[in-house]
Amino acid sequence: MPVDVVLNQLGGESNTISSIIAGFISRWFIFMILPTKLSEARARHQQVSAEIVTNYKSRAPLATDQVTPSQLAEAIEQFFTVAMRLDREQGETGAILNDDVSQIGDYGLQLLTDLSNWAQQLALDNARHEIALVSLGAADWIMRHQGEIRAPELVVDALADLANTTQDRETLKQLEQFMTATLQALTAFIQQDLEKTNPGRPWRVLHVNRAIVATRIHDADIMTRVFDEFVQALPEEAPRFFAEGMVQMDKLDYPQHVRGIMEKYYNSWCGRIMH
Fold first, then answer.
1. Tell me, which fold does domain 36-151 have in CATH?
2. How far apart are CA 241 and CA 158, in angstroms?
3. Spatial CA neighbour of 56 closest among 123, 111, 154, 114
4. Which residue among 18, 21, 76, 268 has the highest number of C-beta atoms inside a 10 angstrom radius?
5. What are the tens digits of pLDDT across the range 203-214?
6. Where are the domains of the chain?
């Protein structure tokens, strides 16, 4: 998900009946997503993989050297079977003895990424979106068991999609919490990343998107915490981010306390006072 798409979501929300309805729908929607139970993620996967498999079979050659959607769907089912069995045997939270949670989770996320690639090849845009949402279930499972996320692309895409479709501030708080936990689970991935300066790296995109979500929550403590972590992680991105943030403050009806925090960081990172 391009960062600029999410940047357009910095806008405030009006106190209209339509925004209240949208907020209710948003809360219901994200309740269905965060945190995603494995059983729900599995059911979503079964539905979307069936669509991809059917579409593939209607177009595919008789033979191919690629791993087919059917094979991927079967392997993903095995991932869910293993993960749900471990939850039953060792509890739904905490470290799991004798099994590598990070490796199992990475296996699941890589399979989902491969299935998403098939959806892209078959021009099934909604299926790609659904697979990304399934990945949140796998990510949540990894984090509940203190593992590391090693294949974050789909997870970051799903969180960006949710940010773009969410306006309710309480819902955005839940989203920010999930984003924060995801970044914590990416610590080892970030340390080992050989392309840290590439602006398209998923963890960099996630930092930017989380800072935007924090702004839209209108909570001073959350904004300050997230902004502090943002500038520590991506100091080279800070001037552009806060300059764009001040433009949005001028364009849209943000509360004064939100503008004040944005202006404070703008002055620190862009070197001049806004009037």
1. Four Helix Bundle (Hemerythrin (Met), subunit A) (1.20.120)
2. 22
3. 123
4. 76
5. 999 999 999 999
6. 1-32+155-275, 36-151
